[in-house]
Amino acid sequence: GAISTASLSERVQQVSVTPPASLREVDSGKILGFGADLAEDHPGFRDGAYKRRRMDIATLARSHEVGEPIPELDYLPEEIATWGTVLRETSQLYPTHACQEFLHTFPLFDFREDRVPQLEAMSSILRQCTGWQIRPVAGLLHPRDFLNGLAFKTFHSTQYVRHHSRPMYTPEPDVCHELLGHVPMLADPRYCEMVHKIGLASLHADNKQIWHLTKIYWYTVEFGLIREHGEIRAFGAGVLSSYGELENMRSEKPQILGFDPFAVLPKMDYKSGYQKLYYILDSFDDAATKLGAYCDKLQQA
Ligand code: NLE
Ligand code: FE2
């Protein structure tokens, strides 16, 4: 998902808190990073053709209206090759590293190395499984808008492909991350229930609470782990879409803590490579119960 982090916190302060009444009222145009403007340390920064392509894809996303089908994109041979590499490599680790829910829903999407799946096709499978849908977005969306989308069972998704020079890890969301990390998980009803709670809580949250919910989102939906029969498995999309992150999660390097939505959560970090800290859930039901308690507290406050 396209969600901003850390240094953007000041900009969050300027947002009004009138909750949107429908998805149409969720602004998908406040892009805080990535999208078409690549930072100097981005692997595609010096690649003019890549930057022009990113610009075109961002324009396509901006043209989308709620209720219309997501425009199809003809992926270039180089983009298909990158997707194929990401799919082939991450798939080797899924049987041993991905959670059961992911392994169960993954085959529904018929992922193939020679074809980048279209968001519209993915969205229609999700609608049938869980009632969730995808909305295209040009880049990293403002956290409030992104989280508000979840309340309407809508996942804002990028459509561009990461730069071919680094298929195993990208600091930003791209379509490989969305398709391999988020889409299969969003076909699981119990997982969706947990994510929906984050979205609903965001509707009435003040800016400080939005910041905490963004961290909750980050440490679960993006980088969460789950305990299964005494083993550590990944359900976070940022782990599932990156071969390097999947390996990192199982190495001796990171710290792994039990997840508690009431606890103070550390600053999010995507700039310095693999995560140094992951949070682990006992189950999605348990997490949804705890999140429910946190959200009730928000509403009473
Ligand atoms: N590092 C992830 C990947 O390479 O797929 C993307 C994380 C986006 C938050
Ligand atoms: Fe994501």
Helical/strand content category:
alpha/beta
Distance between the termini: 29 Å
% residues in beta strands:
5-15%
Radius of gyration: 18 Å
Overall average pLDDT: 91
Q: Helical proportion? A: 40-55%
Q: Give the ligands present.
A: norleucine, fe (ii) ion
Strand count, sense and barrel status of the largest sheet are:
4 strands, mixed
Strands of the widest sheet, in order across it, are 6-5-8-7
Q: Helix and strand succession? A: HEHHHHEEHEHHHEEHHEEH
List low-pLDDT spans: 10-15
Number of strands: 8
Number of helices: 12
Shape: globular
Structural features, described:
With 301 residues, the chain is an alpha/beta fold. Helix content is 46%, strand content 10%. It is built from twelve helices and eight strands. The strands form three sheets. The chain has a four-stranded mixed sheet. Helix 8 packs antiparallel against helix 9 (207-222) and helix 8 packs parallel to helix 12 (284-300). The longest helix is centred in the N-terminal third of the chain and has 21 residues, at 77-97. The chain is globular and about 50 Å long. The model is unreliable at 10-15 (pLDDT under 50). The structure holds norleucine (NLE) and fe (ii) ion (FE2). The site of norleucine has 10 residues, from loops.
